[in-house]
Amino acid sequence: MTDYVALAGQLIMVRLFGTELDAETDAFLRQYKVRGACLFRQNMQDAAQLTSLTGALRDAMGPEALVALDQEGGAVVRSTWVPAPPSGMALGAANDPQLAREVGAAVARAVRALGFNWNFAPVLDLNNNPHNPVIAERSFGADPETAARIAMAWMEGSESEGVACCVKHFPGHGDTHVDSHRDLPTVDKPLAELERFEFAPFRIAAPKASAVMTAHIVYPALDPQFPATMSRPILTGILRERFGYEGVIITDGMDMHAIAHRYGAGEAAVNALVAGADMVMAIGARETQVETVHAIARAIADGVLPLAEVEARLARLAKLAAAHPAGPVAYLAEHDDRALMARAWRAGLTALGRPQRPARGSKVRLVARADVVSDGVSEAGVPAASVAAALGRLYEVELVTFLDAETFDWNALPQDGRFTILASTARRRYGPQARATWRPDLHLALWNPYQALDFAAPALMTYGFAPPAVDAVVAWLAGEIEAPGHCPVPGFETQ
Fold it and tell me: DSSP states of 13-25 as a string?
């Protein structure tokens, strides 16, 4: 059984619970032969600390270590001090494959310098659901061929700098109204529609993608019983056999409520591997990580996971690691990459409804959320005071904040002739009270572009709130640049 435990450990990816590799975790990784670790914002302080941590992980996990993170761009970034990449939808709005390739390469340069060799990006979900609570601006758009072209260029850039990509979330998370971190979504579409839409970018990516991440979603037309992460008809039947995919398949986090609230950790992991996954993202507590390893080991010993299939999985993971060696390299292009990211954010800036620029030096009123929030996937949004300070470069700004949009009384704002700007700094759409009564003169949609549809007001959409996105807004307001982007999803045709 000991040998099976060692095999099982190589099939899981774990998370850490601090900013350094403590003795207990080091021993756990070595004992169970774990080869994969995914780091999150809470594991990161600065470049020196993070590079030390990833180095310690490589020492513990060996030369085939896979050290991963989610550095997609936009709101989903973990290392927040490196040059800030635009979101997928910002690049989709720019519709420039060469620019996307340059951005993907720059992202890879930054994370490889920190010791990572695997980035869980780009997103291939086609966002055609305006109420999707978790994808939205993370998607490159809604047209399968256009979105795939931009995303594949991004991926080629990353791979050219030695960082493996992982396209996600197969077979498509774009048309959901439920976040799988919180519950189990269902996409109840006929097979023909899935073939035409959701499948298309993954089919295009299959010959080139180093890795594919699964979706914790039920697709009744494909498998009425199991979510895709545990579905052999989906992972093996469609992805492996029909699409001919030969790279690594990794699950999304198995601690997400869509899975963890319905299955035991060990049961879920075995189900995913039997379905065709190569690696299970066991990023729950240490107890569930140990439970996962032993459940997989028992499945190997009992023949539920045939040894030949386990060896094929290990070979795919070894090939991925060999093609993308772990270990930091010098980051010599940071200054140029910051300029590139600023240019890319500007290229995606999108105007809706002919917005007007207040005259420089005029009095404006800025309305924004009082707090910055994270949905557990994204980093927290830009503080209202930061937006006010940015606008203060051009105007005399009065800042008004609200805690709850549904109870904020827009009509109580003074009728004093000030130009009123609403800055949306969270992903969640507005509710019926706000949609019915708020009337900004200009709406700055600094996160989810679909919020621009909530109000009959001219809007400027950035698809993200990183400092260079806000700088692009200020440059537009100053008349220094135009807004050349075109929103790559339905509903914005009047722009």
Answer: EEE-SSSS--HHH
Kind and range of the H or E run holding 369: strand 363-369
Helices 144-160 and 97-113: angle between axes, nearest 10 degrees: 40
pLDDT one-digit tens code per residue, 408-462: 999 999 999 999 999 999 988 999 999 999 999 999 999 999 999 999 999 999 9
Structure tokens at 26: 């080091």
**118-119 vs 66-69, strand pairing mode:** parallel
Q: What is the pLDDT of residues 254-304, one digit of tens each?
A: 887 667 778 888 999 999 999 999 999 998 889 999 999 999 999 999 999
| CA 139/CA 146 separation, integer angstroms | 11
**Structure-block tokens of residue 354:** 């002919």
Provide the 3-class DSSP secondary structure of residue 280: strand
What are the backbone dihedrals phi and psi of residue 144, each rounded to the nearest 5 degrees, phi first? -55, -45
CB contact set of 283 (below 8 Å; sequence gap of 6+): 13, 14, 15, 38, 253, 254, 255
How large is the average pLDDT for residues 7-29? 96
d(CA 281, CA 253): 5
Cα dist from 199 to 184, 390, 462, whole Å? 20, 42, 28
Active centre residues (catalytic) = 181, 252
- C-alpha 199/C-alpha 193 separation (Å) is 9
List 460's β-bridge partners, or say none.
Answer: 351, 444
* Amino acid letter for position 178: V
